[in-house]
Amino acid sequence: SELQRCGVQHTVVARFDRAFAALSPQAFIDEVLLRSLRARYVLVGDDFRFGARRAGDYAMLDAAGDAHGFDVARMMSYEVHGLRVSSSAVRDALARGDMPGAAALLGRPYAISGHVVHGRKLGRTLGFRTLNLRFGHARPAAMGIFVVQVHGLGAMPLPGVASLGVRPTVEDAGRVLLEVHCLDWPADLAAEGAYGRVVSVQLLHKLHDERKYPGLDALQAGIAQDTADARAWLAARR
Fold first, then answer.
1. β-strand pairing of 144-151 with 158-165
2. Are the C-beta atoms of residues 144 and 206 closer than 8 Å to each other?
3. 10 Å Cβ neighbour count for 4?
4. pTM as predicted
5. pLDDT in tens, 9-43
């Protein structure tokens, strides 16, 4: 293509749905690698499996490359402190609330990005204005209350405290939401100036799991304590 002749790289993302998962290894080679991608060079991990029931392996892929004229190479695993870096290891760390462990595997803090949207404005009623980000998955890898940094609202990242979950005290539908209270609001950003902006929220430290409070007064007190704990955690690391 013209993009390829100009040396421009681009990414193709395939939706992993039931039809894709049901492809046999040979169908994956024929339909995805050959017909759709017209692959000339394929690089896979050392434990790569493909096709329904993980029936395809490196040897089959290598043989297909010889038969159809594309090169196949295998990249060995990367380890951090003796632990193999993988999406499963990252998800396990996030599920445990081990944010430093996840950051070590990723090479950066785990972050969630998205547009700031309007919410129910309950936070400002309780005295803690929040940024709301919709979360696209019903079961995020990490849930709870976190110390965070927010990128995208100013020249420097903003410290904050965030809730990632279903808000059991005020929400019945179970909708996942990321709510972030910035500890210090930028002086040059109006009170409504964040709406519509794309921000990245780094989850640095987990304070605790979500809690269902008996009422709004208890919720307000809980948020105040979380804010104080976030400030203390950040101060201890300066």
1. antiparallel
2. yes
3. 10
4. 0.73
5. 667 888 889 999 999 999 999 999 999 999 999 99
